[in-house]
Design a protein that fits this description.
With 303 residues, this protein is α/β, with parallel strands linked by helices. Helices cover 33% and strands 19% of the residues. It has helices at 31-42, 45-56, 60-65, 73-87, 92-96, 120-127, 146-154, 167-180, 239-247, 267-277; strands at 7-8, 11-12, 98-101, 104-107, 136-140, 159-164, 185-189, 201-206, 252-261, 280-286, 292-299. The strands form three sheets. It has a seven-stranded mixed sheet, sandwiched between helices. The protein has a two-stranded antiparallel sheet with strand order 1-2. A hairpin with a 5-residue loop joins strand 10 and strand 11. Residues 1-26 have low confidence and may be disordered.
Length: 303
Amino acid sequence: MTRTPQHTHGIIIGHDITTTRTQQRVKNTRLKQVLEQARMRLSDRLEADLLVSHALQKDRTYLYAHDHIDLNDEQLAAIHQLIKRRQLGEPVAYLLGHKEFYGRSFEVSPAVLIPRPETELIIDQALHLALPKNAKVVDVGTGSGCIGLTLAIERPNWVVCVSDVSANALAVCQQNRHILNPTNVVIQQGALLNPWRDQRFDLIVANLPYIAPNDPHLDNADLGHEPHMALVADGDGLELIFSLIQQAPNHLHPGGYMVLEHGFEQQVAIEKALIEQGFDEVSGLKDLAGQPRLVIGRWSKPE
């Protein structure tokens, strides 16, 4: 309660503390309030919770069970920096340093493309092909290694070769191989199938760059942080895919397959290119969103 000051001999001796205190900025340090502020800043509850969890080096369950605790200045600063970087468009996966793919966590960095859920369709299709028990497979343009390493883990009898033109990308792939520890993986650096020279495979899989240089999707904030060379290809985005198709006959056993991921309105052109190259059983597949996503072709001609 505010008391009315009393005047004695012209001197104010009242007990109103508002006449003496200085205004101070109050800082919310309680985890519950910090979470609420982060969610408001990002307008995305999940992203906010993931970033706060990462800053505190705790899982999300901890946030909800301990939202009454007070955070220290170091923790608050770490949270603020992550939220600010996300507001500026940096992808959550890069901020966290990892991304889930086919039920496993893969290390990622700005040196590699962030694994997408739709790319898991490559895994599903590859695992259902009629391949030898000890098949030899190559993942071209492996990036983080999410496709090749997943196939190696799912099929430990296969020999899985992975390659990429980028040394920085292969460093991330090497880290993921170390963490996930498949023993049936060979890693080489180089463009397309060049690192494998005279080797032949039962299956070639690839998620190569397929965005055209003038594609408006490149203005997307998240894509602006991913490596340009992992996204963009000349020739309406199809140059690298067409080059791989041309190389493939010299690297496939009879009865071997190609599984290629592609982008918007590219499926018909890729099917045509495979047929013209001599592939048969060529077919296109849609992803779970109903978008054309993969083309599969079989090479049946003798070596």
